[in-house]
Design brief:
There is one protein chain. By secondary structure, this protein is an alpha+beta fold. The strands form ten sheets. Strands 1-9-10-11-12-19-16-15-14 form a nine-stranded antiparallel beta sheet. Strands 2, 3, 4, 5, 6, 13, 17 and 18 form an eight-stranded antiparallel beta sheet that branches. A three-stranded antiparallel beta sheet has the order 27-28-29. A hairpin with a 5-residue loop joins strand 11 and strand 12. The longest helix has 20 residues, at 372-391.
Length: 644
């Protein structure tokens, strides 16, 4: 990807395009094309903790300043301040930004002097390398001012608190005993930069300002083209120096090329998505493999992981790692439920569909890879999942013996993927029998029956349950509107949970797509129904979560936390749903080649080379949420690969 001066030099365009360089552990370097930090999460060294979500921001920025042969000193960094000023404005001197093999590269021109910067992280270690190279002109003197902090990635640090402790060591300094800076000509400084502003946090209704500690500066000479001045920063084993900075860049580039080559992509878009997928596969603490749901603020969530599983692992040649992940997640099963997350500091079992997506992931793994040994190993645990759902488990999750369908719901909970809550109150609780939950239940029963038969065991009872649920699904879910009910047996609005009155919710939502898209989907495709769904929900970036003519429709996913969560599933676009939409249409023999045009163009518009979490339901469908989202990337990669 390449952008010229008209994008780089325009602050709105340059600051709205973000790059990400992961370390393979859950940490990263992240920023914008123009160099302006727009989020509290942006930094050159963001250090992972014990879980993927527990990150600390360390080295925030290295602001370049160049003294050219004329003696003029030119600053190339960029900061926005609480006053509204943007100073310095180094982006105005950018003649190009490139994303090459997943690594960002900037090119500044100051008259005849041209300087490049590359950023890379050492794979498998919390270590960043920042390399500056003189391309033309010179000689020049390069100063790199290190703005530092040490804080939780979700917060900010202020000058009215303790001053960061900076200890001088050979070739640099150690900050807060947590990370080390190393480079040429270190000169300690030590002062607060007050009122650094993050425009994206302001847009999200969060505290947008923080103070940074100017720890010191590195100084080097670039005498002739090809000369470099580099800085490394690393956490963890501070006394164990990483390789030279230029070697780190080459190591990262070589590894990224190997990741892409192993997936055997059919075209450049698939290659881009393969590299994007790699960012989400991590080993926190260097231990078991896991999946980051989205950068920069999410950690690991089982629902997201299992929806993403086929795209992230089976479509990229990572089945061995996938096997390891499935076994690890199986160990979290409790009362027939898969743990959803530990991001909150404790293990939570609060999803009705995450476990069913796990059944789907295991089934797909065995089907695609032929790994029947894993199927045999997990079969007892999967059988216990079905038994627990039949008997009843947490949150009212149980099979209705009258129709064989799965029901769920408890006061104050939102157990489906539409799980947003505002002030503790679910926005879309969907209590009753949600359509996608029962499509997943039926799909899971069939997948488990096949695994059971592959192991040489009797699957008659599973097939009986599958047959009953399928017949009930086909009888009960079709609505007079021409599409499927979103929820059956839901409490009527006038009645509290558990009240006497029930109704069937026929809101036009995309959840019903799973009734046609899954391998063992309960419904036969109907072109007229799918066209109604497409006409009402489809956008260039994927289906909306609610049709625009609904009274509850929210067209802009904007504002503070309560406002954003209130509209999260009320019309906001979710790119991951493009996967089920494409699968459903293909099963109905409908052409879908044109649906990829908008989302492929999106790869250069927000999180570079990746796919966003969400987008506005109204045109121009501006991206929102995480710029880099696992299931969005995984589902696009999966369905595009199927089309090759």
């Amino acid at each position: 990807m390449r952008f010229g001066p008209q994008v780089c030099g325009d602050l709105t365009s340059a600051a709205s395009r973000e790059w990400l360089v992961p370390d393979g552990l859950g940490g990263y370097a992240m920023g914008t094309v123009g160099g302006l930090r727009t989020r509290r999460y942006h930094g050159l060294l963001v250090v992972p903790g014990e879980t993927p979500a527990s990150r600390q921001v360390g080295l925030v920025s290295l602001d370049p300043a160049v003294t050219v042969p004329s003696g003029a000193r030119v600053r190339l960094g960029a900061h926005e301040w609480s006053s509204g000023d943007v100073d310095p404005r180094g982006f105005e001197l950018l003649e190009r930004f490139d994303l090459v093999d997943g690594l960002p590269r900037w090119r500044w021109r100051i008259g005849a002097v041209v300087i490049e910067r590359e950023v890379a992280m050492l794979p498998g270690r919390s270590c960043v390398s920042v390399v500056h190279r003189l391309v033309a002109g010179g000689p020049v003197r390069l100063e790199l001012s290190a703005a530092c902090t040490w804080r939780d990635a979700h917060g900010e640090r202020r000058a009215d608190g303790p001053v960061p402790q900076v200890e001088a060591v050979a070739d640099g300094a150690v900050v807060e005993g947590a990370y080390r800076l190393s480079g040429p000509g270190w000169a300690p400084e030590g002062q607060w930069w007050l009122g650094v502003h993050h425009r994206e946090e302001a847009n999200r209704g969060l505290n947008p300002d923080e103070d940074l500690w100017y720890a010191g500066r590195f100084v080097g000479e670039l005498e002739r083209p090809g000369d470099t001045v580099s800085v490394r920063a690393w956490a963890g084993r501070l006394d164990e120096e990483p390789p030279p900075a230029t070697e780190i860049v080459e190591t990262a580039r070589r590894r990224n090329r190997q990741v892409v080559a192993a997936a055997k992509p059919a075209d450049p878009v698939e290659a881009t998505l393969t590299l994007a997928a790699d960012a989400f596969v991590v080993r926190p603490g260097g231990r078991a493999v896991d999946v980051v749901a989205g950068y920069p603020w999410f950690g690991a969530w089982s629902r997201d992981t299992m929806i993403s599983y086929e795209g992230l692992f089976l479509c990229t040649g990572r089945a061995d790692e996938g096997r390891e992940l499935l076994r690890a997640y199986a160990a979290t099963l409790s009362e027939g439920m898969l743990a959803n997350t530990a991001d909150t500091g404790r293990v939570e079992y609060n999803t009705v569909d995450g476990t069913l997506w796990f059944l789907h992931a295991v089934s797909r793994h065995v089907t695609v890879t032929g790994d029947t040994d894993l199927g045999d190993e997990l079969l007892p645990a999967l059988g216990q999942v079905v038994d627990a759902h039949v008997a009843g488990t947490r949150y009212g999750i149980s099979v209705d013996p009258a129709d064989g369908l799965l029901s769920q719901g408890a006061p104050g909970t939102a157990l489906t993927w539409m799980d947003a809550r505002v002030y503790g109150v679910p926005v879309t609780p969907r209590t009753g029998k949600p359509v996608e939950v029962n499509a997943l239940w039926i799909n899971g029963l069939a997948g488990l029956a096949e695994l059971t038969e592959l192991s040489g065991r009797d699957a008659d009872e599973l097939w009986r349950r599958h047959g009953q649920a399928t017949a009930s699904f086909r009888e009960r879910y079709p609505a007079p509107t021409g599409w499927l009910h979103d929820v059956l047996d839901a409490p009527a609005p006038a009645y509290p949970l558990g009240g006497a009155a029930l109704h069937d919710d026929d809101a036009l939502r995309p959840n019903q797509l799973l009734a046609w898209s899954l391998p063992y989907a309960p419904m036969d495709p109907d072109e007229s129904t799918l066209r109604r769904i497409g006409d009402g929900l489809l956008t260039p970036l994927g289906p909306r979560s609610l049709a625009p003519d609904a009274a509850e429709f929210v067209g802009r996913h904007r504002g503070g936390p309560a406002e954003r969560d209130g509209g999260y599933h009320q019309g906001t676009v979710w790119p991951w749903l493009l996967g089920p939409y494409v699968d459903a249409c293909r099963r109905g023999k409908m052409s879908v080649d044109d649906v990829f045009v908008g989302i492929e163009a999106h790869l250069t518009e927000y999180g570079l080379g990746s796919v966003s979490e969400t987008a506005d339901g109204l045109a121009p469908h501006a991206a929102t949420g995480c710029p880099f989202q696992a299931w969005s990337v995984a589902e696009l990669l999966r369905v595009r690969r199927k089309s090759q």
